[in-house]
Amino acid sequence: MSRSKNRLYSAIRKENRLFWQRWFQMCARCRNGRQKCYLGVKVHADWQGAQGFINFYDHMGLPPTRKHTLDRVNPFGDYEPGNVVWATRKQNMNNMRVHHTGNGEYKKLAEKNGINTPAYYRRVRNGWNKKDAATMPLQYGYSYKQRLI
Fold it and tell me: Which residue in 10, 46, 79, 128 has a CA-CA distance of 20 to 30 Å to 108?
């Protein structure tokens, strides 16, 4: 990489630390293979290395807010132009692979019925079937096991 490109990389990195962190984390997730959900996911060749950071910066631009993260439009695809957008955490979580394999419809139903995500998952962990966990109203003071008796 030429000196001018290296200076540009350093300048952008220092001015936009959050953007650089988002790019670095994207590359690290796919490189080290520690997270099972990223096995087989690749970063576009033009987006790797110091020059790749500049190319990524040119393609994506800065996130609209500090709360925006990188999201793949197709969760089964790679990090490549046309498949990466800035999204809020909620948008990102709703675009997870699990929601595209048929397991997410009950979570969405729970959200529609006013049951928050932690409550829904706590119910499922405690042995509720997914339909009941998503549709039964929240009741305080007694547990599911007491209702069965």
Answer: 79
Tokens encoding 11: 């300048």
109-136: pLDDT as tens digits: 788 888 887 787 788 778 888 888 888 8
138 and 119 in contact (C-beta within 8 Å)? yes
Following CA atoms 143, 145, 147, 149 in sequence, which dihedral angle do they give, to the nearest 10 degrees?
-150
Give 67's contacts (C-beta < 8 A, 6+ positions apart). 88, 89
What is the tally of structural domains in the chain? Answer: 2
Q: Is there a single domain that holds both residue 144 and residue 109?
A: yes
Of residues 44 and 117, the one with the higher pLDDT is 44
Structural domain includes residue 93:
no
Predicted pLDDT at 56: 92
